[in-house]
Amino acid sequence: MEKWYTKEGICVTEQFEYLKKAGSSKFTDRHIKKAADLLEHWNGKQIEGAALIGAPLSKPSISHSGASFTPNVIRNLLQSYTTYAIDENINLNNTIVDCGDIYMHVTDLIQSQNRIKKTMEELCTTNPQMIPILLGGDHSVSYPSIEGFSKVKGKVGIIQFDAHHDLRNLKDGGPSNGTPFRSLIESGVIKGDQLVQIGIRNFSNSQVYREYAEKQGVTIYTMKDVRNQSIQAIINDSIEQLKNKVDIIYISVDMDVLDQTFAPGCPAIGPGGMDSYTLLEAIQLLGEENLVQGMDIVEIDPTLDFRDMTSRVAVHVILSFLLSKSNKNKKHINQFTK
Ligand SMILES: N=CN[C@@H](CCC(=O)O)C(=O)O
Ligand SMILES: [Mn+2]
Ligand SMILES: [Mn+2]
């Protein structure tokens, strides 16, 4: 049992054998390491490897959304899973640095988005080896996040998992969770051919936005493509598509790419979506690619979720990404292993 010391340095455990500190885990198994144990509060020193950055912004969402609660839910759920990947027979020993949350303005949404951009830019500048994992928030956070990321890293390729194009026009309101990739294209941060969209779904989009995407050179894999082709082939083709034209790749995971059965906590749920295993496999394959150096996870509203099912997928997205990075590093750059 973990020892409990008071602020004054008194060891409570020595005197009271069966007392444990409030909030500590109910049960510990000496042979189990929890994913939460990988998490370290940022001490201000250079970050090498994965870092969580909370972006608790969901006021720009078209549908009512409590996605601003998600970063803390994900942090807490890391306690529910272990570090052991049985398929690979690997124990994760990556450190996940927790940079905390970006402070949002209560009413000024553009100001909040600017804070995301500024923070991402500053963190990437001062920590060149950091792999940011931005926790939304709704999908509006991706525009400023990728803009800040690209300022430091150069030409960025994006692999977006989503039921929706998120290329809505800006005249009907925005920037919202329906416009992040339109904003990136129109502000010149990316050209359309730097964007790959996977999992785009029937009855969730419009013909005009599909045509806009095609005109801009966006690569689209619909859910039918995902069902008819292997996810390995789609990921390989996506990387091939991007790798000669970009300096770095960023993954944007809108959790509503999943079928409603796997993601009840998304505001825009629907049938005909991806299953969670396919998404996790895709993330693991992407993590093996050295060019992939950043990610965001968005559109989970914990107040709508059932038993945190959707946030639990997000935790597995993070762990699958870390797994492939540690796997990759074993073979190559040895960046994560201690
Ligand atoms: N990122 C999500 N975009 C979707 C859902 C918007 C919503 O209903 O909140 C879209 O634009 O259709
Ligand atoms: Mn979506
Ligand atoms: Mn989206």
Write the CATH homologous superfamily: Ureohydrolase domain
Compounds present?
Answer: N-(iminomethyl)-L-glutamic acid, manganese (II) ion
The geometry reads as globular
- Please trace the helix and strand order, writing H or E for each element: HEEHEEEHEHEHEHEHHEHEH
Q: Report how far apart the termini are.
A: 26 Å
The CATH topology assignment is Arginase, Chain A
Per CATH, the class reads Alpha Beta
Give me the Rg, rounded.
Answer: 20 Å
Strand arrangement in the largest pleated sheet? 1-5-2-6-11-10-7-8-9
Let me know the average pLDDT.
95
Helix content: 25-40%
The class by helix and strand makeup works out as: alpha/beta
GO molecular function, one term: formimidoylglutamase activity
Organism: Chengkuizengella marina
Protein name: Formimidoylglutamase
Family: Belongs to the arginase family.
Descriptive account of the structure:
Mean pLDDT is 95; it is low at 331-338. The chain has 338 residues and is an alpha/beta fold. It has a single domain (33-331), classed as 3-Layer(aba) Sandwich (Arginase, Chain A), CATH 3.40.800.10. It has a nine-stranded parallel β-sheet with strand order 1-5-2-6-11-10-7-8-9, sandwiched between helices. The protein has helices spanning 12-15, 70-77, 109-126, 142-153, 180-186, 207-216, 223-228, 231-243, 276-287, 309-331; strands at residues 39-41, 49-55, 84-85, 90-91, 96-101, 130-136, 156-161, 195-200, 219-222, 248-254, 292-298. One manganese (II) ion binds at residues 139, 162, 164, 166, 254, 299. Belongs to the arginase family.
